[in-house]
């Protein structure tokens, strides 16, 4: 019973409100009481859910500024008492944290640049260039995407080891440099650009690479941004590949370092402020990226492919 | 597919030539360029994906111990021994593999439906045109998805610690929360225990599969694993919400309006109109969810490393542990390939379940009634 009442009122809401934005936005006041109540329930549910999603991160940031004792005694409070930056001082002053951060940054920059370049090259070729074997390459890429990454842990180590690039930047970066999904995003985008654009340049005598580099690529900005976001996020957050491709402390990335921080001291409990401070810092770059490109990420379905 | 893709290109290729450009045509060297452009991708994927998989397949049939090259002549071929050891060996290896499968099966069974339902619910809530602060809510729900699994796990270890935030919230309503990540007992066993059932019937305890008694298989996820499951739902619901949102935005409003005119209430419209049109999105979400859930690794590596009592060991982690920590490379590779087969099996199964069935006659007639007059109108 109670299930049908709100349902019917939603019908009302939608019927009444649809034409409104065009004319009189202020008539909300005259909504029937039932509708209003339903709206309130909706917002209450949304706000409650949003709190559940946001609170953990607020607790994370707050705990980074707490003392060990305060973090244990009052885990939920958002106001550190007393306020201290000891955790951050220890992270940056007397731990390998800066090295981890630098390694993550190096890997992320190279991987992102490589993925953007190679994915757009291959995507362009698959979308626009006619050559024998194109269908085969396409099919192979689809097959490759289906291989689950976790299955590749041991295989990757074997090959990296055989090639003699174990425990080096090459071993960390090279295998991540290409990503089949990125090729597909680029291919889809290039498919949507009218061919007449390039034909003009071709008639003017531009070679294939020239057409690609100076005509088509600049038009692909939305798709490129999508790939930048995905690769940045992917390589910054990557863990398993670094576990199997490196061992020396000098090559530890943030993910691997913070993981060792967490598991190494789990048995002793505690030390939460420093762990959470580390986790918070490693979240900052992706969070910044996220808020800069928020609109594009949120509309990724429309943004990259259409336009 | 090849024929479809090349046909229009061939036509295009003919075009400019006929237009009379000098000798070779302006599309000369295109084949070379095509290969050159795709070469980096092919080489890297070949070297770091195809070759490794073949090598690992070999290792799974060998007795390689991690010393020297797995391809050296001193490494012996042992056939299916590694596979036999984990499936019928009767020893610890089999029991561990069974435990890992049990843990992950429960994880999949509960996380996949939960994350799908929650993300669909969030998408429906947030998709409403009249909603104020849509952007804010979308951001809030999506944000956990962009953060790294390591950072989230560290946070989760804190939130779910014995005196952590979750237990503090539970204490408000009088619940004495467990020491989440140190609690190996199974949730279903605990529920049965609350009714006084502490040991299973002989039929369940007496028979076993992969070294675990049926009673143990039915223990449910451990309390520690439940915390990981909540984490999975928390971090993935945002991504999947976006996929559903994209699906919802592709649905034209007219079908919904038609249903509304026919007097369908919101509940009926959701089940009969919206959900069937969301099938592609639903398929994507379920597939990605299944694939992801069978690959749980980062969280376990960062958090509990399989403990307590091996109740958070997953096949992916077990494969890593066997190879890299115990130096049982053949066994580790074998586990990885079994896992691969499981994932492929479930993906195919799901594709089959959600396939487009031929429309029944009765249904078809319904559509005809609606569509025929419209077509006539268009013809006029």
Automatic annotation (TrEMBL), chain A:
Q: Which GO terms describe its biological process?
A: transmembrane transport
Task: Note down the stretches annotated as region Disordered.
Answer: 1-24
Name the domain of life: Bacteria
ABC transmembrane type-1 domain boundaries: 101-293
Which Pfam families does the record associate with it?
BPD_transp_1 (PF00528)
Database matches in Gene3D superfamilies: MetI-like
Query: Which species is listed as the source?
Result: Microbacterium hatanonis
Q: What SUPFAM superfamilies does this protein map onto?
A: MetI-like
TM segment ranges: 35-59, 100-124, 136-157, 169-190, 211-232, 272-293
Give residue spans, biased composition: Polar residues: 1-12
The topology of this chain with respect to the membrane is: Multi-pass membrane protein
Task: List the protein's name.
Answer: Carbohydrate ABC transporter permease
Main location per UniProt? membrane
The subcellular localization recorded is: Cell membrane
Q: Which PROSITE patterns match?
A: ABC_TM1
GO CC annotations, alphabetized = plasma membrane
Instruction: Return the similarity comment.
Output: Belongs to the binding-protein-dependent transport system permease family.
Recite the UniProt keywords alphabetically.
Cell membrane, Membrane, Transmembrane, Transmembrane helix, Transport
UniProtKB/TrEMBL annotation, chain B:
Q: Which GO terms describe its biological process?
A: transmembrane transport
- Residues annotated as region Disordered? 1-25
Q: Which SUPFAM superfamilies match?
A: MetI-like
Q: Where in the cell is it found?
A: Cell membrane
Q: Tell me which GO cellular component terms the UniProt record holds.
A: plasma membrane
Q: Which UniProt keywords apply?
A: Cell membrane, Membrane, Transmembrane, Transmembrane helix, Transport
UniProt keyword annotation of Cell membrane present:
yes
Q: Specify the protein's topology with respect to the membrane.
A: Multi-pass membrane protein
The record's InterPro entries line, in alphabetical order, gives:
ABC_transporter_permease, MetI-like, MetI-like_sf
Where are the bilayer-spanning segments? Answer: 34-61, 105-127, 139-162, 223-245, 333-354
**Matching CDD domains:** TM_PBP2
Q: Where is the ABC transmembrane type-1 domain?
A: 101-350
Q: What family is it from?
A: Belongs to the binding-protein-dependent transport system permease family.
Q: What is the protein name for this chain?
A: Sugar ABC transporter permease
Lineage start:
Bacteria, Bacillati, Actinomycetota, Actinomycetes, Micrococcales
